Amino acid sequence: MNDLDERINESLDILIENETLLGHELQLLLKSFKEEKTARGFSFGKLCFWHYEAFSDGVNEDIYKVAAAIELLILSFDIIDDIQDKDSDYIWSKTPELSLNVALAMLIMASKAIDDTSFEHKPVAIRLLEKYALQSINGQQLDLLNNCRDEESYVQMITQKSGSLTAMGCLIGEVLAKGEVSKEVEEYGKYIGIIQQIKNDIQGLKVWGPKNDLLNKKYSLPIIYLLTKKNDISNSVASYYNDDIVTVLDQNATENELTNSGAIRYAITIKNVYKFKALNYLENVEINELGKIYLQELMK
C-alpha cells in the first residue's frame, strides 16, 4: 500500500472509532468491511486528493478525512450492489440484513465527516456528494431493471452508475480547493468511470461462472453487439435470454463467437473512444505529474 492509501486508511480508522453513535456490533462489522476494502485500494479517495492538491496552494490535513468519507460512501454502494446481485464473495454478503445497516450508517457518516472538516467550501462538497450519489443510485436502478439493450442506453446507464462516482471524487477535491468546479474535470471524471465499467464488463466475460453477465442474462456492450449478429450462436443466446428452457449455451462456441465476431473488439473500441475524450479534457487541466500519471492509468 502506498503512502496515500495508508493516510486514507488511517483516516477511515479514525472516522470509525470516533463514531460514538454506533454500537459495538455495528462498529465491528464496519471495521471488518473496511479491511476487505483496504486490499483493493482507495481509488475514489485518491481522485479527491489529487484534484485538491492540483488546485490548492497547500495541503489541509482534513483532505484525508474527506477522501476517507468518499470511500465510506463507495463502500456502502459496493455492499448494497453485491447484496442486490447476490454476490457471495465478500463477507458482507454472509449477513445481508446486518450489512445493510452498516451500509446505511456509512452513507450518513460520509456527509457528516465532510461537514466536520475545516474547509470553507464544504457545503458545496456535500451537495456534490448528494447529487452524484443520487445519480449513481438511479444508474444502479436502471442496471437492475436490465432494460438497457442498445449502446446508447447502456452507456447512459453506466455514466450514471459508475461515471457519477468517479466524477464526484474529482469534483469534491476541486471544489474544496477553489470553491468551484470545471467542465473539463467533470467530463473526464465521468469518462474514467465509463472506461472502468467497460473494462470490468470485458473481464467478467472471460470467466464462465456465476459472475458472468451472459450466464446471468445481463446486458453489456459485448453481449449487445453479439445479439446483433444473426447466426446460430447469437440466436441461441437470444433464446437463452428469452427464457427458452430448452436452450443450453455451448461454452466454447459462445466464447469463440464473443472473440471472433468482433464483440470484444467493439467494446474495446468504445472504451478507447472515451479514453481519448478523457485525455483531451485532461490536457486542459493543470494537475501535477503524479496526479496526471494516476489519471492516465485509470484511462487505459
Note down, in words, how this protein is organized.
The chain is mainly alpha-helical and 300 residues long. The protein has a domain at 182-300: Farnesyl Diphosphate Synthase, CATH 1.10.600. The protein is 72% helix and 0% strand. It is built from 13 helices and no strands. It has helices spanning 3-17, 24-38, 43-55, 62-84, 96-115, 122-145, 151-178, 183-204, 221-226, 232-241, 251-260, 263-282, 289-298. Helix 4 runs antiparallel to helix 5, helix 6 (122-145) runs antiparallel to helix 7 (151-178) and helix 7 (151-178) crosses helix 8. It is globular. It starts with a helix and ends with a helix.
CATH architecture type of the domain at 182-300:
Orthogonal Bundle
Given this structure, which CATH class of the domain at 182-300 is correct?
Answer: Mainly Alpha
Query: Pairing-aware structural class of the strands and helices?
Result: mainly alpha
> What is the helix fraction of residues, given as a range?
over 70%
Mean pLDDT: 95
What is the helix tally? 13
Distance between the termini: 21 Å
**Fraction in beta strands:** under 5%
Q: What name is given to the CATH topology of the domain at 182-300? A: Farnesyl Diphosphate Synthase
The CATH superfamily of the domain at 182-300 turns out to be Farnesyl Diphosphate Synthase
Compute the CA-based radius of gyration.
20 Å
The gross shape turns out to be globular
Q: Could you describe the largest sheet, including whether it forms a barrel?
A: none
What is the element string, with H for helices and E for strands?
A: HHHHHHHHHHHHH
